[in-house]
Structure prediction request, 433 residues.
Amino acid sequence: MKTPNAFFLAVALLFGTAAHAQQVEPLDSIAAVVDEDVILKSELDLALNNVLAQYVGREDQLPPREILQRQVLERLILLHLQTARAADMGVRVGDSEIDNAVANIAQQNNLTQDQLRQQLASDGMSYDDFRNSLRDEMLSQQLRQRFAQTRISVSDAEVDAALASENSEQYHLAHILVSLPDGATPEQISLGQQKVDGIKNLLDKGEMTFAAAAVRYSDSPNALEGGDLGWRSLDEIPAAFATTIRGLQDGQVVGPVRGPSGFQLLQLVEKRSADQSAGAQTVTQYRARHILVRRADEAEAKALADTLRARIAGGADFAEVAAENSDDAFSKDKGGELGWFTQDQFGPEFGAQVASLQDGQVSAPFKTQAGWHILQREETRQTDVTDDNRRAQMRERIGQRKLEDEWNRFLREMRSEAYVDIRTGTPAAATGN
Prediction:
């Protein structure tokens, strides 16, 4: 992905070094300028072809090509804005993370990585483009996670109220959004109302399925998935719909309802009883001490860890050695004490070590991303976490419901504030600041 300056510099260099050539290689054109970045026509074509491939045999569900191209371009614009914002916030995705993601995708599709490369090539996508696409998606996910951590909070009172009213049903939903800008004018509201009423009229007459209408008309980021929202419990459904949804039959549509993002239509695809059979849940917890050794020189860190371990083997008190030498500021003053924790709480390497020890036993030095560790397992217990798990799951569901509205609002704000110059499909038009 080139910035405009880099792109034009590349063009200038090409013509500067080959001015005498009779022919030059055709250059990729620009589909849109997004702030200091560009979306190339080849990038748009690839994304568009990916969508078309997903709808083979169901082409009648897609809108006309020019509308579909505009929808796909808007997705790319939002993705570019998210990756740029992530970079500004210092969010990074390393090559090793991409390698792991590629390996997981290959495994999920029962392919070797060489077979995955061949499949990508047959689909017209280079391996480098695939990795870059993965990187952008992972940056977007990390930006969303950071957004959730800083913007979304769920109080204990909200969890208590949701648990008290919890029912045993889950609902598979889809929606159509006719978005309105923040501070919409009466004219914009009226146009939005007319559009959503028109969509509802088509659905009522049976002239179009809900999924096809979502693909063609919805302004939601999941429009091309037919507006599918997946399975949700009642507490994950917006309050404007929650009281109504319980009385609907499969396939029925409720709305339009005016929400924070605009006008919405919601369809109950189907419902099911949630699994209530899980009994008491217990986990193994460990109490342990550790010593962390962290040095710029890896060999020096390993040597010091070996020395400290030898002192402990010779009779030195673990807590005293930790207080004097550990580089973990959190536990050092407590003699390396970590308290009670589950096996996966401090990462897989740490968890594997603590699980392999007996109570009272001290590990050999081992390495994690944090540095070199020496670990002493003190004791073990089984803890009933049924209520804790229920509360954690409910907190997560409420948080996801809040995040959906806030994240979509954040994307709309980011889009409205950006400079976007669309140069394909329609006459060039600049929007934003």
Summary: The mean pLDDT is 84. The chain has three domains: 29-147, 170-273, 283-383.
